[in-house]
Amino acid sequence: MRSDNNQLDIFKHDPRLQVPALKKLAKAHRESADEALKQFQFSAAIRQERHEHYMAEAKRIEAEVRQLARPPRRRRTRSTGATSP
Asked: What angle do CA 28, 33, 35 make, to 5 degrees?
């Protein structure tokens, strides 16, 4: 049975990878979502459910990419010394 590149590679698509690899993974999920609508061996409800699942995963990964791309927040500390206001 051929996979036709529908299945993700467990090592190549590791979610703990860096930003460029995560962008590729999000793109792969969006392509899978488009493909899920075309697979007519499933009913319309199942196709839509699979499409929504892949889109949700793509959006989750893209949110993670945005979070990783942000610079880290600097922590403000209040002085407790004698010169503090």
From this structure: 95
List the single range of 15-19, 23-27, 37-41 with lowest mean pLDDT.
15-19
Residues in the chain: 85
Radius of gyration, CA atoms only, the chain: 21
CA distance linking residue 34 with residue 55, whole number of Å: 9
The alpha carbon of 36 is separated from its chain's Cα centroid by a whole number of angstroms, namely: 17
What number of other Cβ atoms are within 10 A of residue 62's Cβ?
Answer: 17
Residue type, 54: Y
Domain coordinates of the chain in residue numbers? 19-69
Separation CA 42–CA 36 (nearest Å): 9
The Cα 21–Cα 26 span in angstroms is 9
What pTM, to 2 d.p., does this model score? 0.64
